[in-house]
Amino acid sequence: MTLGLFGLAVALGVPLCAGLAFTRSLAVFEREDLSGRLGQSLLTGNLLLALFLIAWGWSPLSYHVPAARIVPGLLALACLVVSLRPKERGTRPPRGKEWALEVWFFRGVLVLVAVGLADRILISSLELVSVSDEAHIWASKAKAIFCSDGFGEAFRQTTELPTIVSHRDYPPLNSMIQLWSFVVAGEITHVENRLGVQVFLFAYLFLVASALRRRLRPGVAALFLACLGTLGFVWFSAQRAYSDLLVGLGVFVLWDMLARVEEERDTRWLVPAGLVAAFLLWSKNEGLLVLLATAVALGVRGTLLGPRSPVRFGRRGWAALAGPALVSFGYLTWFNRRFDFRSDLLQGYMRDVHVAKLDVVPGFFELVARNGADHLPVVLSAFLEHMAQKPEQTRLLLLAFVIVGVLVAGGRNPRARTLALALFLVLAGYVAVYLGTYRELVRHLDTSAHRLLFQVLPASGLWLAQFVAQALPWARAQERELRASEPSFATDSSSGRGPLVDSTASGVSPPPPLGS
Known about the structure:
- Helix content is about 65%, strand content about 0%.
- By secondary structure, the protein is mostly helical.
- The longest helix is centred in the C-terminal third of the chain and has 31 residues, at about 440-470.
């Protein structure tokens, strides 16, 4: 172990302090929702730290000086102290009667899953980061940045070497988090760099607990939490620093916050939702597909419902939601073009990471047209096999998702249809990737299909939980209804000049869950 206890405290404490400061300043989580605030703080803090390290890498400053770890630590502490002044959001409306045994059951499940994940993390410390995607994609890019001391010419020359970085165009969030362990240690680490990515397991667990608890009574929420917290790929992610966990977390949280905007009639949720949208883009290329699918689903709903659509955020609301993602997309596109980091899937070339060689292959769309009809049955069969037989998935959850999806599709509930449409579009996009792959199809499916399915599986569980809360009143979180009317999101939806925060949102209890 290169990092001592103090080094570990700095490596983990700096992003947590930064995230707590930002989350507290937003004041969107209730005081009682400790798990939600902690989860959002871990997510936000690590994103802010990664952005800081990127800015540092573009400056003349070095990653190898003490200031590189001292400055972000001082800034995080200063922001946390300043954020103590704003008050957190008030208490949620009183709940109906809940059995104490149910509440303790939910807390017990949360603790047990957290302890299990921590145990997997400790076991992973026995193995170096040296194989698979965590080493060849994410850790290798972090090492290239650290050894090049930024994003100058040395970085370009390092990444051009054929055996250094695989998939150079992938977004750098995972790599920047691993880079932070190098900065704190003052040298490259081979175990602790995995820890910063593993922390997202607890962000995932806490945010899942928050989302479920606010919609379901504690006993039912505990069952969903056990299901979503013990997914095979969640436990696998406790031992490997893959970015699929980041995508799955981002999809879950984005759709949860968009649902909260509508459920609580409070557009303050659009600010953290916009940050999560940017988080998706920084995590992996699939994040862009998720955002496009979400935008299309919201657009279809708004078009079909017209003036009756409650999705009227106003210009400021849409700016808060889409602004961070647009800026992130612009930077990532510019960065890849600057260093000529191209996607082998879209650009029509295959780079052999073992030899300095570029094999030109047909482009993505040409391959879809040429091989799509032959590939489609194989792809659909593989997806169904993973859903029904593979141990990496939770079979009952996926089966319930399919059944309920059919039921809701035939109903007249536009809110439930919106999320179902977004899920369908994401899955359709994943299928299209395999239709246009230049790799050997069966091997490509065997090595990646289970990871892509995991990315949408937690959000599928959230959607299912919302439908259960609607269909089974006894399973719903019993909050006393204080709402007298349903205010609109913006005072002037045509111009978007209404306040970003609905003036009637404070002191108003949430309406029934999404899908009601």
